Amino acid sequence: MTRIGVVVFPGSNCEYDAASGVTQLGAQAEFVWHSSTDLSGFDGIILPGGFAHGDYLRPGALARFSPVMEAVGRFAADGRPVLGICNGFQVLTEAGLLPGALQKNRGLTFLCQPTTLIVESTNSVLTSAATVGQELVIPINHFSGAYTCDDATLHQLEANGQVVLRYKDNPNGSRDDIAGVANVAGNVVGLMPHPERAMSTLLGSADGRVLLEGFVGAYVAVR
Questions:
Q1: Any idea which residues carry the catalytic annotation?
Q2: Can you give the pTM of this predicted structure?
Q3: Cys-Cys with 34: which of 9, 115, 190, 219 at CB 3.0–4.6 Å?
Q4: Buried-state track 151-168, b at ≥16 Cβ within 10 A, e below 16
Q5: How many Å apart are CA 7 and CA 36, to the nearest integer?
Q6: Collapsing DSSP states into helix, strand and coil, what is residue 41?
Q7: Angle at CA 200, nearest 5°, toward 161 and 204?
Q8: What is the largest CA-CA distance in the chain?
């Protein structure tokens, strides 16, 4: 059975959602406290949403120095699957595991609503089970969710196919409508929308399943 570690920082609040999402797909989820330094035995790692360390400096800036992030860095360098959702995406950019940064939404407005994403690339552990051009309805829940980067980074992202998801109707002012990016190898992915909250039509959408199915199955390809 696939073992997924869900990292918990002080202030995380979506760890149970993330664990439930992968458990529904047959994986075994285990919580990993942010002071842990050993991720051996896990097949994938999720950094969930929330307010790591209260976002007291800026989102993800303090969590980036938690001991577990050195282990996450080694895990990623070994080519193993790492996923950052919302606050987890912010942490991955602060840690330098993904390019760019997240800034406050356009209009300085907190957003909590469904949004439509377009799959731009399937060359990542998150989008490998989807199809290019597929539209997915996934909820967002953030204040600092506008993706930004300089011109050179944007050019590099495009050239390498690292933009994996875009907003159909940009809700937050993200540059080039970017909703999710991957590293060059495609094993580290971050996105602001919450696929773990779109696992059933009873809750509005089951479109998050295709994304988490790709992530849960990714370890088979990298073993």
A1: 86, 194, 196
A2: 0.96
A3: 9
A4: eebbeebeebebbbbbbe
A5: 9
A6: coil
A7: 90
A8: 45
Integer CA distances (angstroms), 57 to 63, 64, 190, 192, in order: 10, 11, 20, 19
Q: How many CB atoms are located within 10 Å of the residue 69 CB? A: 23
Enter the tokens of residue 35: 């002071």
Quote the number of domains for the chain: 1
Tokens found for residue 149: 């980067």
Q: Residue type for 166, please? A: R
**Structural tokens at position 44:** 């994938």
pLDDT truncated to tens, each residue of the chain (223 aa)? Answer: 899 999 999 999 999 999 999 999 999 999 999 999 999 999 999 999 999 998 888 889 899 999 999 999 999 999 999 999 999 999 999 999 999 999 999 999 999 999 999 999 999 999 999 999 999 999 999 999 999 999 999 999 999 999 999 999 999 999 999 999 999 999 999 999 999 999 999 889 999 999 999 999 886 544 4
Residue 184 is part of a domain; what is its CATH number? Answer: 3.40.50.880
How deeply is 173 buried, as exposed, middle or buried, from its count of CB atoms within 10 A (0-12, 13-18, 19+)? middle
Tokens of 23: 């458990």
